[in-house]
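Researcher: Quick test of sequence recovery. Tokens follow.
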């Protein structure tokens, strides 16, 4: 009997499930549902008229569905049937008269109808629902913003700020609106208001102001406003910090120095503010200001906790400042070519070397002593051509400072270059080989050392061995040495086929040039031009002759060599490089601005896609005095 009853219960439950499924399926297939889906299809196809007709029929039967309401409103707007949209929205509003979002939408429709007065009346109603609600102001402000009513949005936010009793409310929104209206002064005043209320927001203010300081008018307006604020409220340190930052953004480092000096004093920073500024000035290559700032720290804060770094930065700034004024160099990294040049270099770089030596003596066994040793060695090698002294400094660095591996390894590489300059190719090769075997597969120093080993084979006329090493280097496209390796590889292969003897002579000249034996190298290059006039190596020799003439101060002869290359080898792949070098000789060596501009313009005319095109344009602007 019990079994029979349980069986009846199961049948009853199955029947209920069947009826429920049947009713659900029926609901899914009601005519109104089918029409709604059909309307959606027409809407997706862009047939809004048909879609509206179907949506109206569905809405007439089910006016409580927010989904159907929204679809009908959306399509009215698509068809610009704004009166119908407003009537629909007002009908819906009767269900929720306290909805600020719906009122804001109605106001936006009135704007589309060009009925601004009615729009503002509706928006005022939305605000009046709760005049002290930040959310209401944001909802209405968003509607105004979408209607591109920037001025009225600003007025609304300012009104909300007062009503809510929060002076910093909507600051970012108002400042942004001012900035898109190109009113950079008032935008900056808003960010000052933000800082005034909460000094910790200075970082956020800077990042937002930075969106328009790349414009000259934005930068000048910001500086003027902040200068006025910092002057009227001198005790407000964040204002001064913002002003100093703006000065640096505008590259007004002299002005920034004065502000940071005052900040450091007011905040009892003990030199820390000045130090951070000096480090940025050095990174930005404003060496004169960096020198001045480091010197101020050394004089005013002799017990500064980072004095080793200060003195090192001071020496680096002196060195780079001297580099900028060094008239002995034309194409970078040049060594003296005479005793007179060496004496001039010693006098010029004496200050930097003295400070580097102070760091080595006062802070032994530190990273900055190691870096100072490296800098002194490079100055002795590249500026004084005192190779033995440079070697001694590098050997101390390599032997005593190996706990700073990055600096020590750089010392090994440069020691190899010194041995190469001294003519000891075996010892040079040993240094490079030790670097080429260091662990990491992709390591810039390892790759440079591998390139040097290939160059040694080239200098020793082991051309096939050199090509093999260079091929391995070029197999890694991410290698910093890949381009140089490819260039040398192609040069060797091309000239090995046409004239191996000319290539041997050229390799000898290249080695002499690398050893800064310029007179001997020049003789070899000139001999190659006379002895092998039909080979492909002549155009390369002519550009090298021009370079060496420029290095030794024979600028007119350098120009003559470059011109001969341009005239005799009109198809040479070196023409754009040659025109760039001519321009620099005219500009730096002969101080002939017009000829320099002419050379750069020829480069741009003949080779608009050259790798040197951007540099040529920049130099033209500099020579003409254009603002960059």
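Model:
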């Amino acid at each position: 009997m019990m079994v029979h009853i349980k069986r009846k219960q199961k049948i009853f439950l199955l029947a209920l499930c069947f009826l429920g499924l049947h009713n659900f399926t029926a609901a899914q297939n009601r005519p109104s549902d089918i029409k709604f889906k059909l309307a959606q299809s027409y809407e997706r196809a862009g047939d809004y008229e048909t879609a509206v007709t179907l949506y109206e029929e569905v809405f007439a039967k089910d006016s409580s569905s927010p989904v159907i309401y929204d679809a009908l409103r959306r399509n009215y707007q698509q068809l610009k049937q704004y009166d119908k949209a407003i009537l629909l929205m007002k009908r819906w509003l009767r269900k929720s008269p306290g909805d600020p979002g719906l009122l804001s939408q109605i106001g936006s429709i009135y704007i589309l109808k060009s009925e601004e007065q009615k729009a503002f009346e509706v928006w005022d109603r939305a605000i009046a629902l709760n005049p002290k609600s930040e959310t209401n102001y944001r909802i209405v402000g968003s509607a105004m913003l979408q209607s591109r009513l920037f001025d009225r949005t600003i007025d609304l936010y300012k009104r909300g700020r007062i009503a809510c009793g929060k002076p910093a409310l909507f600051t970012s929104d108002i400042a942004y609106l001012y900035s898109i209206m190109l009113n950079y002064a008032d935008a900056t005043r808003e960010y000052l208001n933000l800082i005034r209320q909460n000094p910790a927001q200075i970082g956020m203010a800077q990042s937002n102001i930075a969106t328009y300081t790349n414009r000259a008018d934005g930068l000048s307006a910001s500086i003027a406003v902040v200068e006025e604020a910092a002057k009227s409220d001198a005790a407000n340190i964040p204002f001064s910090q913002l002003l100093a930052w703006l000065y640096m953004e505008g590259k007004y480092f002299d002005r920034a120095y004065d502000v940071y000096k005052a900040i450091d004093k007011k905040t009892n920073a003990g030199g820390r503010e000045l130090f951070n500024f000096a480090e940025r000035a050095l990174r930005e290559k404003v060496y004169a200001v960096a020198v001045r700032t480091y010197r101020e720290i050394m004089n005013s804060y002799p017990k500064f906790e980072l004095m080793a770094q200060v003195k090192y930065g001071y020496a680096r700034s002196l060195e780079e400042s001297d580099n900028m004024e060094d008239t002995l160099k034309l194409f970078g990294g040049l060594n003296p070519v005479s005793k007179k040049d060496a004496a001039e270099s010693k006098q010029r770089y004496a200050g930097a070397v003295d400070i580097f030596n102070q760091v080595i003596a006062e802070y032994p066994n530190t990273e900055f002593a190691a870096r100072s040793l490296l800098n002194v060695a490079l100055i002795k090698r590249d500026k004084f051509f005192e190779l033995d002294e440079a070697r001694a400094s590098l050997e101390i660095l390599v032997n005593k400072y190996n706990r700073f591996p990055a600096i020590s390894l750089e010392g090994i590489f440069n020691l190899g270059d010194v041995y190469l300059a001294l003519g000891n190719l075996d010892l040079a090769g040993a240094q490079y080989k030790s670097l080429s075997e260091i662990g990491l597969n992709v390591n810039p120093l390892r790759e440079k050392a591998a390139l040097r080993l290939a160059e040694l084979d080239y200098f020793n006329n082991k051309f096939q061995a050199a090509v093999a090493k260079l091929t391995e280097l070029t197999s890694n496209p991410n290698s910093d040495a890949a381009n140089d390796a490819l260039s040398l590889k192609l040069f060797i292969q091309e000239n090995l086929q046409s004239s191996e003897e000319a290539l041997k002579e050229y390799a000898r000249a290249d080695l002499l040039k690398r050893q800064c034996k310029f007179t001997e190298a020049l003789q070899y290059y000139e001999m190659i031009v006379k002895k092998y006039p039909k080979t492909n190596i002549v155009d390369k020799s002519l550009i090298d002759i021009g370079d060496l003439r420029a290095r030794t101060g024979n600028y007119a002869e350098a120009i003559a060599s470059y011109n001969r290359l341009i005239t005799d080898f009109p198809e040479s792949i070196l023409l754009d490089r040659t025109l760039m070098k001519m321009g620099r000789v005219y500009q730096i060596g002969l101080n002939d601005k017009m000829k320099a501009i002419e050379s750069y313009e020829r480069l741009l005319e003949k080779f608009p896609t050259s790798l040197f095109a951007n540099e040529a344009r920049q130099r033209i602007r500099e020579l003409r005095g254009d603002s960059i």
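Residues 1-29 have pLDDT under 50 and may be disordered.
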